[in-house]
Specification:
- By secondary structure, this protein is mainly alpha-helical.
- It has six helices and four strands; from the N terminus they run H-H-H-E-H-E-E-E-H-H.
- The protein folds into three domains: about 60 residues, Electron transport complex subunit B, putative Fe-S cluster (3-methyladenine DNA Glycosylase II, Chain A, domain 3); about 70 residues, Alpha-Beta Plaits (2-Layer Sandwich); about 80 residues.
- Helix content is about 50%, strand content about 5%.
- It has a two-stranded antiparallel ribbon. Strands 2-3 form a two-stranded antiparallel ribbon.
- The protein is extended.
Length: about 230
């Protein structure tokens, strides 16, 4: 459980990161990496997008010495942005699902397009593309740099995406819980219609045993679904 002071330390350090959400540091995004630095679970030199300048900023903030970028995390390079080759795109939406900042627009079976100003150059859209229609290219003139304002915009987009995914997952969890409860209610209704009449034969006994088994399975599913919802 993080204390308020601990969360504040993570917040402050997160704001110093480039917000590319590229995962090259070995963590799922900039905030998890910031948390790892604060808890001393990770060094300050595993952010290739931040490069040597970013390491110097993190060193000044944490009081740690300036060190070279860890080559296992990647290399420092100029900003690049994704470009979709229109002739090859099949509209599969896999790149849209992979983009951590919602910088790709499109619909199923329709040509997708990159929102260049929002693209962080994270490369995460490359692996899932089944037709290799995405290239990483130099940004347009005048957009070569990555400012603090760009970083904060990317952070906001990343947060909105995470919140949207959370809402969708929560809605799905509610639907599954309601569906399981509906099946349970149907079983109870069927049992009520049959009443508690004596078992007539082996077949009837087997049917009752199977009904009891189904009920136990559905009750367990309902309990799991409710527990997931309560944990959110």
């Amino acid at each position: 459980m993080h204390t308020d002071a601990h969360r504040a330390a993570i917040d402050a350090l997160e704001l110093l990161l480039p917000q590319t959400q590229c995962t090259q540091c070995g963590y799922a995004g900039c905030r998890p990496y910031a948390e790892a630095i604060v808890t001393q679970a990770a060094p300050i030199n595993r952010c290739p997008p931040g490069g040597s300048a970013g390491i110097a900023i993190l060193a000044a903030h944490t009081g740690q010495p300036i060190v070279a970028l860890d080559p296992d995390a990647g290399i420092e390079r100029p900003r690049r942005v994704a470009h979709i080759v229109a002739e090859l795109c099949i509209g599969c939406t896999k790149c849209i699902e992979a983009c951590p900042v919602d910088a790709i627009a499109g619909a199923p079976k329709r040509l997708h397009a990159v929102i260049v100003q929002a693209c962080t150059g994270c490369d995460l859209c490359l692996p899932p593309c089944p037709v290799d229609c995405i290239q990483m290219v130099a940004p347009p003139l005048g957009q070569e740099g990555w400012s603090r304002a760009d970083a904060q915009n990317a952070r906001a987009r990343h947060q909105r995406r995470a919140q949207r995914i959370e809402r969708l997952q929560l809605a799905q969890a509610h639907r599954l819980a309601d569906k399981a409860q509906h099946h349970l209610d149907e079983l109870d209704a069927a049992a009520g219609l049959k009443g508690d009449a004596p078992v007539a034969d082996t077949a009837d006994s087997a049917a009752r045993t199977e009904a009891a088994r189904k009920r136990a399975v559905i009750e367990a599913a309902v309990a799991r679904a409710r527990a997931r919802l309560a944990a959110r």
